[in-house]
């Protein structure tokens, strides 16, 4: 076995290598110090030390020259205090923040960014032009004011003398046509601004209110009811009384053991005992376990339109398209908004009774809305509603129900509104009117169909199809239909009954439109069903005097131009 030779330090070899010339760094080769030494062979290959150019890729032209900033990009580092300056920054030239921000995108090409920058610059130019115009207008007004002051100081007559009044009755005219014309001429001569001359009809022209004694009960009838319960061996007594002037309700408290199934038999027994043919039992009353005996009054107190207007929210003069029709039995105003009511069906309203629901609805709308907000269209055979066509709210002339193109005009309006709303990216008339200018706003259109039975009986399928389309799409577009169906012998299609959401039904022994109409009295008595409630409300329709209606029309025609 051979032993390995032990390594030893060779000092001579170490000194020999130390004395050799040290290897130069490649960048120092060819320096001026070595120019005299002559050519020297390089111990390295230059391509190894030369930086190779970047390889061009297929999509190199599409890449931005700088990296696009993201929300994770740090745009400004945290300030670190210096040992010499502390937190004091060195003095640098002030630069605009907008310029610094745009430097990030100076090498980034984007069509969207260029378009945004262009729109922003144009907007700023428009603002500058508007400021210049406003400043010019102010200077002109100041010069005009200075000129007027100088004329007044010099004793010039600035205002002309008003023309003398011709006659007393022209000045105090209710319609005020001559007075308004003279006022306009005077204001034009004086240089004053002439504003819109539109006023709402006052409550004073609505005639008289309902008689004040309509709430007094019939004590003799209350005693008869108590005696009838004693004779029928039923524990019950009258505890309160309410009335709307047409129908009185006696609230009766029964024994808790009384069964609800016996109410029809009790109704028949009370009719025979009290000798009342028109007696209706309301069971139970809302909020209580008692029943109500509804009896028509022998001496009714008519419900006037002024009472409906003053006792409801209509007197607040809001532009909410609310209408009042009548009073419920518990002496509350039956009012509803047209936008919620949708389309209205008036079923079984006979012409021989002065219970015109349409007059109450239209007068309620005319009292609080001008011709820019409301339009009325009439489809009828007679001239019963021609008075509404003389006011500025009229949409068109009266349309005949026997014409084949009866509702074609309204269907064209429906399609135009549908296209306009779709372009404005809205779904209802309220949103559309809030986005467009005042001149482009759409008015709420109310279409009155005087006799729906005549339209259905005329064998006009085009008109029926147009009516169904209006009923399906018209409510959000601001088009509402009020159909009066007087002939109860002609049945209404189930589809039409479903599309006419609000129903006001008078006496009908067959209960075709609303169940319970067979218990009503003929005349001023109806059941109303609204879309937000399935339970019908018994209401007494308000009466409209012809003089009151004509005074409202005169005020609108002569004072609203």
From TrEMBL:
Residues 9-23, 120-140 have a biased composition (Basic and acidic residues). Keywords: ATP-binding, DNA-binding, Nucleotide-binding. It is found in: Membrane. The keyword Protein transport does not apply. Gene3D superfamilies: 3.30.980.40, P-loop containing nucleotide triphosphate hydrolases. Residues 330-515 form the FtsK domain. GO terms for cellular component: membrane. It is a multi-pass membrane protein. Pfam families: FtsK_alpha, FtsK_SpoIIIE. Residues 1-95, 120-201 are annotated as: Disordered. InterPro entries: FtsK/SpoIIIE/SftA, FtsK_alpha, FtsK_dom, P-loop_NTPase. ATP binds at residues 348-355. It comes from the Bacteria. One of its GO terms (molecular function) is DNA binding. Belongs to the FtsK/SpoIIIE/SftA family. This is S-DNA-T family DNA segregation ATPase FtsK/SpoIIIE. The lineage of its organism: Bacteria, Bacillati, Bacillota, Bacilli, Bacillales.
